[in-house]
Write a structure and sequence with these properties.
With 77 residues, the chain is of the alpha+beta class. The chain has one helix at residues 2-11, and strands at 23-29, 39-46, 51-59. The protein has a 3-stranded antiparallel β-sheet, with no helix packed on it. It is globular and about 35 Å long.
Length: 77
């Protein structure tokens, strides 16, 4: 199960690079129909230390498993 979750996280990533400190924003869409996940998770990833820090969770969304970023990078669909 952990391998599947890791692969899902990798394929679901959307990065926003901050060159000064090598930190990225990571969005992870999940399946919510099993009751184990809540929606879209937002993390900060420090590429220097390898630390993932959860920032927020967008809940109340039915199975947001596929995410796409708008061309202007202001919205996630």
């Amino acid at each position: 199960m952990k391998k599947q979750l890791f692969l899902f996280m990798i394929t679901s990533m959307i990065f926003n690079l901050s060159a000064q400190n090598l930190q990225y924003n990571l969005l992870i869409g999940t399946y919510t129909n099993t009751g184990k996940s809540k929606g879209i998770y937002s993390y900060t990833v420090n590429m220097k230390t390898g630390v993932f820090t959860q920032k927020s969770v967008a809940t109340g969304i039915s199975n947001p498993s596929y995410l796409a970023i708008s061309p202007d990078k202001k919205f996630v669909y």
